[in-house]
Fold this protein.
Amino acid sequence: MSVTISQLIAKVRTVYSLPQTFHRLQEVVQNPDSSMSDIGEVLMADQALSARILQLANSSFYGFPSRIETISHAVTMIGAEQMVALVQGTCVASIFSHVPRELVNMELFWKHSIACGVTARLIAARRREPNTERFFLLGLLHDIGRLVLFQHLPAESAVALASAGRDQRPLHRTELEVFGFDHAAIGYELLRTWKLPSRLCEPIKMHHNYTAGSIYPVETAILHTADVIVNAMRCGTSGERFVPPLHAPHWELAGLGVEMLAPLQKEIHRQLEEVTKTFLL
């Protein structure tokens, strides 16, 4: 495979541009003098994004006892850091729209990604991790590198898909053979280019790596476990036809017991339909 990760990322930067709201929000977040009202003002300037945020705030994803009517109320209830994570995910998810249909069904792709985000958030909440929205963002974006491969290397991606199906192997392993790298490495470099935090980028890079240690072991373990659970549940697909092997140390660190799986799956299904509708507007 002659194309390098750097060359692919350079192509992405020329084809895709993140919404202006994303960049304005980054500026506000990086300014130590910014307030929650400043975040609200950025969001209110984007009517489509505001509508999505309000719809999500009033869904079973949060389950607030009373209706959230305004963005400022949503920011107050959800929290500034959590709101930033949601907006980042929404902005990134909105820019991929020209992936070849013969390679992937985009509705199923996002259903899988959203289900993984919902699952990671639920697992993190059980562990009482802070800012569980960052775990939703991890799940939402964990396969973003696969869209880059489908879009820019469609012929080679078709070979990887066919090889995985023929040999009944996880797709990320055939990606390594065909490209010399997998979608997780591409996703890592892309999100790093967009200046998303290392706590988000690095677990995405490591979620299929069972040998090297992660500098964010809890995030990596939760993301890996969520991905395996969602693949086993057949909630959408990013092109994967088989359930990736569950890494026992990740499962243990995620803190799940077998007895938790049934109630967890029930809650995933309860939240998934509403959240999917919000992101696929």
Notes: The chain has two domains: 1-16+99-281, 17-95.
